[in-house]
Amino acid sequence: MKKILMPILLLFVLILSACGSTSGETASGEKESDKENDQPETITYESENGPVEVPANPERVVVLSSYAGNVMALDVNLVGVDSWSKMNPKFEEELQGVEEVSDQNLEKIIELNPDLIIGLSNIKNVDKLKEIAPTVTYTYGKLGYLEQHVEIGKLLNKEEEAKQWVEDFKKRAQKAGEDIRAEIGEDTTVSVIENFEKQLYVFGDNWGRGTEILYQEMKLKMPEKVKEMALKDGYYAISPEVLPEYAGDYIVFSKNADSETSFQETETYKNIPAVKNDQVIEVNAKEFYFNDPITLEHQLESFKDAFLNE
Predict the structure, then answer these.
(1) Which of 25, 70, 79, 245 lies closest to 166, judged by CA?
(2) CA–CA distance from 160 to each of 74, 96, 102, 143, 157 (Å)?
(3) Which one is predicted more confidently, 210 or 27?
(4) Integer CA distances (angstroms), 302 to 165, 210, 235, in order
(5) Which one of 126, 157, 188 terminates a domain?
(6) Measuring CA to CA, how many Å separate 49 from each of 42, 64, 125, 138, 208?
(7) Does 27 have pLDDT greater than 80?
(8) Radius of gyration of the chain (CA)
(9) Is the pLDDT reported for residue 77 higher than 90?
(10) Which residue range forms the structural domain that includes residue 70?
(11) Same domain, yes or no: 140 and 217
(12) Strand, helix or coil at 29?
């Protein structure tokens, strides 16, 4: 009898144990599921103006200045952008169906039903915008151009993705800089100019147009006159007559084809060494304005092609 009873008792214990284990796994599975469903709907973002409660996963973002490319690079949906972003040929495909808005178009913004609004600190109607959706603004240049992307990554709850891109981009841009300096010489200077309406500008090292890549990452040299006049404020307006004083051995010309370009037909311009040596790199200004990841990738490839024929 004992010989028969013992195996039965043992089997009963094993069945109970198995049931307990199955029950535990189910409970554990439910907990994991609960965790997934228990993700916070909002996060607190520490903006330069204090904490702001923003969506943990924003789905309808309006960008009123500068940062549309940062948002697109992090694969977050846009419903409204500023006119400068809308006119960028490199953004055209991704911004199909996205409305053009400004800080004055409050009714239009309301219709878009955004869950997050982003812009520069100088936009108007900030208090009214905050009534529509959480609104975060940034002071241009307060953060480095790559730090800015990481900061927007934090805002969109995608900080790690932003950091990974930044790390990879810096490596590639710095390597390209080493190759370019080896090709053109360590002391060769590069200046960046742009025509806008009837004015010419030269740029420092942090005002888009590829300046961050050329000067900060590639370590190419800036002409002394540009350094003196444009480095502090980021840009400096000049007349075509004095352009030779600001011209480097190479000139990156961020060209607005729909603005004044007649200066290119003058003897003053034609006699600039960079022009005579065919060392002017013309790019589309509307594609080069910004310093978001999409624009930076385009700028980097453009410079590699121009300097290294890659």
Answers:
(1) 70
(2) 10, 28, 30, 18, 9
(3) 210
(4) 19, 10, 22
(5) 157
(6) 18, 17, 15, 9, 25
(7) no
(8) 28
(9) yes
(10) 42-157
(11) no
(12) helix
